[in-house]
Design goal:
elongated; alpha/beta; 434 Repressor (Amino-terminal Domain); Rossmann fold; four-stranded parallel sheet; about 325 residues; DNA-binding transcription factor activity; 3 domains
């Protein structure tokens, strides 16, 4: 900084004001300082800055190693929102999400000096780790149930499932079958809850649930079973788009026409869903909004130098109607 000050003919305090975008610096002086910074290749020493300000401008994210669209898109949304707010992100990806793993990851990030941590906790086992968090570090949970000691940001999974099921009922289908996600996933539980609520409110029969594990293969296997019952099945709500892809493949192989014989609705609105055959009606989650709200709540905690209220912010989903759903044939 002293070198920049000498090259620009100003004091080092003026260089500091320019770097921190202080308003009381003349435009001519600011321009001269910025040109000197560019010419000398000056870069801030972030370690030294952290020692002075007690903030590293780095946020931690705890997630798990997955290629699933929802969790991966959530992490991307968080990272983009953090960058927009002027923060770097340090990510710890766990192979399995459990209480010990989440706690170890939080301890590791705390030792690295992050200013706050976002925990992506879509499974019940991960959410339970949020009940006993270390003091002194701001934490926000994404999904995470009711969060325990941390604020929670989540998409309204139950409302998304309710929208999907009500859409099919409005098309005249007597009931709607469901291919669920795996046990222990809070999102799978929320989608079952919304599906059941819509059927109950309409006074319709609740069929037996078919189990899946989020993969196209599990959707394919469920689709084979549903195709064998095509005389009694006219509508299916599948808990994610990857499983819906498997269902559609099974129906095609078994000669079941979608949506002429059976309507299909998915969940997530992955980029490929509009190119399925037929294009998939599905529920869209706003992962960008999840990321923005997560970072906003975390930064408020950081500014307050501690944990705030354990609020729960719910992001609404949207139904995207395409060609895989249609009125029931009489």
């Amino acid at each position: 900084m002293a070198d920049v000050a000498k090259a620009a003919g100003v004091s080092h305090q003026t260089v500091s004001r320019v770097l921190n975008e202080h308003p009381n610096v003349r435009a001519e002086t600011r321009d001269r300082v910025l040109k000197a910074i560019d010419r000398l290749g000056y870069r801030r020493n972030m370690v030294a800055r952290a020692l002075v300000t007690r903030h590293s401008r780095t946020l931690g994210v705890v997630s798990f190693d997955t290629i699933l669209y929802g969790p991966a898109s959530t992490v991307y949304g968080i990272e983009q929102a953090a960058r927009d707010a002027g923060y770097f992100v340090s990510i710890v990806s766990l192979r399995t999400i459990d209480r010990a793993g989440v706690r170890d990851a939080i301890d590791y990030l705390t030792e690295q000096g992050v200013d706050g941590i976002v925990v992506v906790a879509p499974q019940r086992s991960a959410a339970s780790a949020l009940e006993d968090l270390p003091r002194g570090i701001p934490v926000v949970a994404v999904e995470g149930g009711h969060g325990g000691a941390a604020p929670v940001i989540c998409v309204d999974q139950a409302e998304g499932a309710r929208l999907a099921t009500a859409h099919l009922l409005d098309f005249g289908h007597e009931t709607v079958w469901h291919v669920r996600g795996p046990q222990d996933w809070l999102e799978a539980e929320g989608r079952i809850e919304g599906w059941e609520a819509a059927l109950t409110a309409a006074g319709r029969e609740i069929p037996d649930v078919l189990s899946g594990d989020w993969s196209p293969r599990s959707g394919y296997e469920a689709g084979k079973r549903l195709a064998a019952m095509a005389d009694e099945v006219s509508a299916v709500f599948v808990a994610n788009d990857q499983m819906a892809l498997g269902v559609l493949r099974a129906f095609t192989e078994e000669g079941v026409r979608v949506p002429d014989q059976i309507s299909v609705v998915g969940f997530d609105d992955i980029p490929e869903s509009e190119f399925f055959s037929p294009p998939l009606t599905t529920v869209r989650q706003d992962f960008g909004a999840v990321g923005r709200h997560s970072i906003d709540v975390l930064l408020k905690q950081i500014e307050a130098e501690g944990r705030g209220e354990t609020e729960r912010f719910v992001v609404p989903p949207d139904l995207v109607v395409r060609a895989s759903s249609a009125p029931r044939n009489s």
